[in-house]
Design brief:
The complex is a heterodimer of chains A (about 110) and B (about 120). Chain A is built from no helices and 12 strands. Chain A has strands at about 5, 10-15, 20, 25, 30-40, 45-50, 55-60, 65-70, 75-80, 85-95, 105, 110-114. Classes of the chains: A mainly beta (about 110), B mainly beta (about 120). Chains A and B meet through strand 6 and strand 11 of A and strand 5, strand 9 and strand 10 of B.
Amino acid sequence: AQSVTQLDSQVPVFEEAPVELRCNYSSSVSVYLFWYVQYPNQGLQLLLKYLSGSTLVKGINGFEAEFNKSQTSFHLRKPSVHISDTAEYFCAVSDRGGAQKLVFGQGTRLTINP
Amino acid sequence: GAVVSQHPSWVICKSGTSVKIECRSLDFQATTMFWYRQFPKQSLMLMATSNEGSKATYEQGVEKDKFLINHASLTLSTLTVTSAHPEDSSFYICSAHRDRPTGELFFGEGSRLTVL
């Protein structure tokens, strides 16, 4: 079984500042890792994913994440945030078989202040 | 990109009635769909895995008779909340797995259920 821990429930930052949202996972098998964004009253949109290969993954909207196997982490970063990045962010993990049955972290509320 | 549509987006019902939520993959076939439940300011909790042509697989603690799931075609899965009560009020989100050209998961917009 897998589990995901997002270390920060809320992260407030100023516009144009850098941000890092932390995610750690636990699994007895190799996994795929994902970051999703959720805007109010909407479903989830995939930001990026790590399946294999390069540990630095680039996604949409200027976000990137780095897979660190030794630390079992998959932190999300953006060098300069915008007001429109205000949303809930979820880290998720799935095992490598089948149809990507996802286990989600608790979510991090990113608030961008002007 | 691939589109998954949920209907209705919002539904309000009286306690004791049943509500059906549809999840459709509009431009691809999905042999597997997932149903999640999300309480306010919380994460998504997987309720069940819906497989086309077979019975759904429910997660531990989810009542099968309460949350009926039907996946009758490769593009449609339905979740029926039977005899709904106020504690069933929640945001329900589905996702559909597209096998080809690459295995990828797409999420619906979610359905907010309020039981009075």
